[in-house]
Design a protein that fits this description.
A hairpin with a 5-residue loop joins strand 1 and strand 2. The protein contains 22 helices and eleven strands. Helix content is about 45%, strand content about 10%.
Amino acid sequence: MRTHFGGFEEVGATKVDCKNFKRDINLFIGKHDAQMVINRLELKRDFLPDFSCEYFNLEEGVLGGLFWADQDMKRNYLVFGDVVSFDSTFRSNKYDMVFVPFTGIDNHHHNVTFAAALLANETADTYKWLLKVFKKVFGSAPRVVVTDQDAAMKKAIAEVFTTTRHRLCMWHIMMKVAGKVGKPLKKDKTFKQRICNIVWTDLIEPVEFETKWMEMISEFNLANNTWLSDMYSLKADWIPAYYRHEHMSGLMRTTSRSESENHFFGQVANSSLTLVEFLSHFETAMEAQRYAHRKNDHDTRNTVPEWLTEEDIEREADKIYTRNIFNDVQDEIYASVHKCTSKSYTEAGDFIKFFIKDLQFQGSGLFEVLFREKDMVLQCSCNRYEQYGLLCRHVFCVLRLCEITVFPKNYIMKRWTRDAVTNNSYQGFSNKPASNDNVEGVQGVVREIMFGNDYIVNRLVNNMEQLVIYRDQVKQQMIKVDECIGVPQPIPKKDRIANLLGFNQPTEDTIRAPVGIRTKGSGSKKRFKSFHEQASKKSIRKQRRCQICGSDDHDRRTCNRGNGENQPK
């Protein structure tokens, strides 16, 4: 706050004031935590278009699971939901409920959140409920799901997402390698290079992978390593060589996307939050994510890249793709000019088969490209388009050789284009229902105003004079609105907190927050003891007692009874 306001004097509150305010919030929430969150989400479901919320209870009304998704999430899923990663993260709230965000990749190649859930446990039945709700809300299962090696997740996905390809996280598995191969190989750079070369690549076929894997196992004497043998038996679930021919298989090879998403939400969540606070922080994080998406859209439309070639197809690609994706395509176009050359070509039925030499590729670097000009059909043996939805340098090289300057329209995948999704519409929500009956009409007018404002600002962004005039007009309207509404009366503390949080206290609690649950990542509840405390306890020895008379001032060797004294004569 000091940084935000420019000094402690400008904050307007002391540290004690902030602590007292936090106390007031906790007292306001009290035992109503779970009920307030459910009421808030159900109110959103009633008033916001296409908002979904589902939950279930355990015994005695304890919240067992909660799922929610809004209109923007659903719209993003329709475009970017071909590959979904989800992973459980912990310590996001005081009840140790597991937070499960569903993550994809947007047209700027950044994370996008499709839905979120809170779970009281991580059993297979709970994950089944979650996936069934996801399928119900979104209408379909994703083509590919990437998770870690959680057995409960695996069982639930197999039973609910029956048509989905389930892949394991390469990142999680490779992170375990160092601890499974022993200390000598842990620091062996040659071993690291060998295993990374055959795992972190999608340019080799399964036969080549198996051959190189066995050579590595033999060379480093790892035949008896049980863990590596187990991972090899699961190779079809995590090695790219086994799914390189699947559509969009390279889009998300690891749940490091989920790890990144968990870190993103971790910046606004911690293990001391109530559910009310967690939901508020989640909404703040989503606003930040959507703002970043709008900023990327703006930068794409209002900046010009640095050209790398003289090819017309490079200029056309800039008008098609977002900036981040264009940078990737631009690199391929540049490589097609400076790093690729045609070795030969031959006719293959209706096609012409080109043999393109890639000078940057290790090994033979020879790729086959099939091309049929009448309907612009292209296919390269590197499978880059099939895996990522973007054309490769070898295809661009063939287009250049054939003097084709127009970008092939049938190879433009919508998910990467500038107009994949429209700018997020206004999704503001008040905890008070609108006064008029036509709520949808009010929301429609609000969206039109927000869209019009964005449109005017985007059109005037390069005209400072007109932009200042428009700003002054908006300020004048703001003054008129304040004059019409008048000065508001002081609001009671309870109502101020309710307005700030966006939550009202319920009149009745039928849902309770879980207490004392244990999840895999919730950690130990025992207090850590210092070395001094542990040592002092060890130093306290048990007091000896005489085994004959039970006295603690002597032992059996010096006991009078044991020596015959005081015995009857």
